[in-house]
Amino acid sequence: MKPKLKLSKNGKFSIDNVDQISYLYFPLTNFYSLKSSISPSLAGNANIDQNTFILLPHTNEDLHNSFMNRNVYFRVNGNFTWSITGNTAYQILHKDSVQLEADFLTHKITRTAKMMECTIESFVPFNDSYQELHRVILTNTSKDIIEVKPVISIPVFCRSADNIRDHRQVTSLLNKVEILKEGIINKPTFSFDERGHNLNNMSYGVFVRSSDGIQIKNYWPIMQEFIGEGRNLLNPEVVDKNLVSNYKIDDIVSGYESTGGFEYEQKTLKPNESIEFLISIMIDENKSFLLENKNNLSSIMFEQLKVQTLSKWKNELKSLEFYFGDNTLNGWLKWVTLQPILRRIYGNSFLPHHDYGRGGRGWRDLWQDCLALILMNPKNVRNLLRNNFSGVRIDGSNATIIGEKPGQFLADRNNIARVWMDHGSWPLITTMLYVDKMGDYEFLFEKQSYFYDKFTHYTKVVDDGFKTSDNILKDCNSSIYYGTVLEHLIIQNLVPYYNVGKHNNIRIEDADWNDALDMAHKDGESVAFTALYGSNLVLMGDTIKKLSVLGINSITLFEEIDPLLHEFDNSDISLKKNALKQYFRSVEKNISGSIKHYDSIVLADILISKGNHLLSQVRQNEWLKGKNGSWFNGYYDGDGNQLESVDKELITLTGQVFAIYSGAASNQQITEIIKSVDKYLLKPEIGGYILNTDFNEVKMNMGRLFGFAYGHKENGAMFSHMAVMYANALYKRGFVKAGHKVLNLIYKHCSDINKSKIYPGIPEYIDPNGRGMYTYLTGSASWFILTEVTEVFGIKADIGKLILEPKLLLEEFDQNNEARIDTLINGKMVSVTYSNKKQLEYGRYKILEITTVKRNIYFEETSYGVKIDNDFEENSLMIRLG
Q1: What mean pLDDT is reported for the chain?
Q2: DSSP state of 772
Q3: Average pLDDT for 201-219
């Protein structure tokens, strides 16, 4: 039978026949940052970081090809072996019925066989511990008495994921397993690293307990002895034979691949009688902490921690809730809302599909995840944003890997310094969302240092004399230089303006948003992000003008930036390049520390002028028109050739998204783009809009994506991030039905488990067969939520003034003709309800009245909605449309 998903409006879901789908996994984690995952067969990771895995690291292929799972076996009537993982010879021939139930963030599998039923509940407690908890309950559902011998085996890896292929056997020689009553602790002697071995401080524990009083008969700490010669984990020798272990409590066993192996006495189960086991898997530097938790292991503790975990996760999500007419959509959005939180914990690593990551998040991820944080939990975001700016270099580039501590940055993964040319564009978008929402324009004048390392000139020059160890820019007097947040933003967006190629678009450098466009270093240009930088410069100029109205008439910047603020012929490419070279030379070692004051209006006009030049450059020179349609060219390849072509029917979604989003595209051009994108990039069978048409060549002068099979990942997949940004751009420009179509196609596909083959949520991309790939950890979740809040429900702000510009379609209202959102406004929870009693479609209604339980709220009409003060005390707004 096909799997069947039931998804409630609160996000809780169940799936019948869940074992009929491969590659499924569910996150189990907490803010203390144990990073686990679990599949229906109980496969998956459990680790703190790249170097601290207690369970064997799993990639997506290992989920169904490896038997190194969380194993509990039952030898039934001495005749056959049955396992909670489904991985036994008996279960291959006699299929179980398997159901999943999941909530925030708890996981429950129910396996039903001919004579028995077993439930396996799993979660990571929402507390300050690195612990997984599991409860296994086996029930005799037959009419006869059965005899079962329970055997638990939790394979423990206890080292770095690097050791999967690097010194796998050698590092097992470091294992030192202590056998305890109802548990084992493995504390390897060393952390193996040929650059310099270190004493290991981590202890890894597996603890078990039966709630029914039966005792452990034998301990089996060595994997090969547990399995037996000529066997594997499908039929381990310990389970189907009556062997006697040589190990006893307090023994130390060293030098082997280890498992938490516990063989229990045989148990007689009458009809409807159950047997229960509790399993704790833990990591900690403090061995006594592990022992304390071992002693507290009980059904009561399990239930208390489960209830607490459910409550805590739901509390994390209650600051943003949607109430559309479609309850399945409301439930699905709960999981999308969770995803940015998960990415702050996992980064881009440690879930089975994310096997390329070694931990941490990239620069772009950091700022886009903050979009959701600002919407959901802005109280701590100020310091977080301020810390983030310490990753900006004075040359306008930035460190690309975020360290474990706030404000800690690294040049790049694997010590390869690169410039993703889009990186400077994202901090402004995120910062202005915060400033507008909170009315905290003072934040723009907070001071922060700059990142400094041996790489200068956009990482094209290495300073061989670099000596500083703190990675902080100093002035010529060796004092730390602090510039304002606004200064950081200006330099990040101003430097790209000068870094142009021969078509006067911004150079692509080592890639833009699409990391796989990484081979166009020579003469490649990103037209798409030329448009975004253009709108950013205009936005900064407009913001500075607003600040001048508030009395801020002068802006202070470091002296060396001045040549970049001169007016000259914007079309003179050589002049731009020379100005940039001179600037790079002036800041390559340090800066003077001298500052210059700029009149706010004069500075604003300079930035707006430069921004409008970039927008005009794209609008006038990159618009392609022909008999096959019309759209924008988005790129030039490494040889300086135009990437896209109307005649050859070559188009990228990215090239259209940022032209629309930035304002470079006129309304008439957007209409033409929508037609062309629908013609060439719309694939409803895989969730909507794909990234590009098939270029049918391996473009070594453009990027590795052209080596990928077409239809996968960045080469022509439905890549959620850019599809959602397409929707956002369309909403932003007033093309609401087209924007809704994009989001609705993604939701409908992803919520159909037989098409997407994933749990509720939005994946990174969808492959040509419709399967969601790289689930949970994707920036598209932040943009999806941002679009729903600021565009669909239209809850925006302008330096603290609340703006309401709803773009709800008639079909999105419920049976009472209402649509509601619970969200944070001015730091407090507010329920905003739109009432559309006349059942008007978008474009035909406007806001007529805003009321609370006490009074009417005064508002000022704007071009697209209304603006009101944020100083209302009530926690609910009723908005009448008509």
Answers
A1: 94
A2: E
A3: 94
